[in-house]
TrEMBL record:
This is Exodeoxyribonuclease 7 large subunit. Heterooligomer composed of large and small subunits. The gene is xseA. Its EC number is 3.1.11.6. Keywords: Cytoplasm, Exonuclease, Hydrolase, Nuclease. Bidirectionally degrades single-stranded DNA into large acid-insoluble oligonucleotides, which are then degraded further into small acid-soluble oligonucleotides. Pfam families: Exonuc_VII_L, tRNA_anti_2. It is found in: Cytoplasm. It catalyses: Exonucleolytic cleavage in either 5'- to 3'- or 3'- to 5'-direction to yield nucleoside 5'-phosphates. Residues 115-324 form the Exonuclease VII large subunit C-terminal domain. Residues 10-91 form the OB-fold nucleic acid binding domain. It comes from Phytohabitans aurantiacus. The keyword Hydrolase applies. InterPro entries: Exonuc_VII_L, Exonuc_VII_lsu_C, OB-fold_nuc-bd_dom. HAMAP family: Exonuc_7_L.
Length: 398
């Protein structure tokens, strides 16, 4: 009952257009029915297709395995076997122009998503310890990569995974190989290589699923597909694009002979630089040692000692001169003070007469009889009393 319901439901889907890659063709002699296996490389799915020989001869008379086709088909579910298949009434082989148009559309889509961005591309190591190689079995591409790499650096190591490089199984096998090598921590770089071929032969290397697998690899990926003019989409996604498998070996592995030559040249330049620096420093030291200050260091000390002695003598003379000038100025000041001092007048015999209240007597009328006076002399004082126009000497003080 379930199978019958599934068959009835699928029968209602009607006719559809299907695009895929022919994985297998079975033409039985004398039979009018042709069996095809149609594969979707991106989804890794296959379906059986039945069609009439006349339909196939009309739409794709030279159809071969690996070709891309578009067919008008109706899904059918066989309840007895529990299988889903397609019945086609029109089959068209996709031409080269249509393939290129589809590739261009896919290229714009991947570019818009950033899969071709330069800033995300990683630079492979200068000398990888181990290289992963994905290529066809016993192919010229494998031989070119291994031979040229070992010729350039004999100690290089490879881990080779042989896969189908064209046909319906190529994309799934290459994606699985990428996952294996990307998960190997000993692999420093991965090379995806294949020799030349037609556009149809190189279609697996423009598959969207393969491009996205390369984009998500943690290990740098080098694309070496076909010849210089071949540019599948994986070339734009890879971190490095090599024009040929031989060019990939040259880009990934350094040339031992060239590196030895560069090391020898660098050592020669380093020797010349060190020798030149030593010669310059030796001449500089000789020039420094020839200076008088280093040839006779005591000359500088003697000269500085003479300068110090001269400065000290000059300072002594200057100080004496200032002291003498200050002494003379002090004596002149003292002389002027003495000349103006009342004490100098008293020394010439004069005296100062004061009343008891301290007022200086300048005239006889300033005192009355019996007033007590004080007479100040140059040395000491006298007490006096007024008696008329004369005076009476009293006791002396001082």
């Amino acid at each position: 009952m379930v199978s019958q319901k599934l068959s009835a439901w699928i029968a209602k889907l009607g006719w559809v257009w299907v695009d895929g890659q022919v994985a297998q063709i079975s033409r039985r002699p004398g039979a009018s029915t042709v069996f095809l296996t149609l594969r979707d490389p991106s989804a890794d799915l296959s379906l059986t297709v039945t069609t009439n020989r006349d339909v196939l001869d009309l739409g794709a008379p030279a159809l071969e395995e690996g070709a891309r086709v578009v067919m008008h088909a109706k899904p059918e579910f066989y309840a007895a076997r529990g299988t889903l298949s397609l019945r086609a009434d029109e089959v068209r082989q996709v031409g080269l122009g249509e393939l290129l148009a589809r590739l261009e559309k896919l290229k714009k889509l991947l570019a818009a998503e950033g899969l071709f961005a330069r800033e995300r591309k990683r630079r492979p190591p200068f000398l990888p310890s181990r290289i992963g190689l994905i290529t066809g079995r016993s192919s010229a591409a494998e031989r070119d990569v291994l031979t040229n790499a070992k010729r350039r650096w004999p100690a290089v190591e490879f881990r080779v995974i042989n896969v189908a490089v064209q046909g319906p199984t190529a994309v799934p096998q290459m994606i699985d190989a990428l996952k294996v090598l990307d998960g190997d921590d000993t692999i420093d770089v991965i090379i995806l290589a294949r020799g030349g071929g037609s556009v149809e032969d190189l279609l697996p290397f423009s598959d969207e699923a393969l491009c996205r697998a390369v984009f998500h690899c943690r290990t740098p990926v080098v694309s070496a597909i076909g010849h210089e003019t071949d540019t599948p989409l994986v070339d734009y996604v890879a971190d490095v694009r090599a024009s040929t498998p031989t060019d990939a070996a040259k880009r990934i592995v350094p040339d031992l002979a060239e590196e030895l030559r560069l090391i020898k040249l660098a050592r020669h330049r380093l020797d010349r630089a060190v020798t030149g620096m030593l010669d310059r420093e030796e001449h500089r030291l000789d020039a420094i040692r020839s200076r008088p200050v280093l040839a006779r260091p005591d000359v500088m000390v003697d000269q500085r000692a003479a300068d110090v002695a001269a400065l000290r003598d000059r300072a002594t003379r200057c100080l004496d001169h200032r002291l003498r000038g200050a002494g003379e100025e002090l004596r002149h000041t003292l002389a002027r003070l003495r000349a103006l001092s009342p004490a100098a007048t008293l020394e010439r015999g004069y005296a100062i007469v004061q009343r008891a209240d301290g007022h200086v007597v300048r005239a006889a009328a300033d005192v009355a009889e019996e007033d007590s006076l004080r007479v100040r002399l140059a040395e000491g004082e006298l007490a006096a009393r007024v008696v008329g126009h004369g005076f009476e000497q009293g006791s002396g003080h001082g």
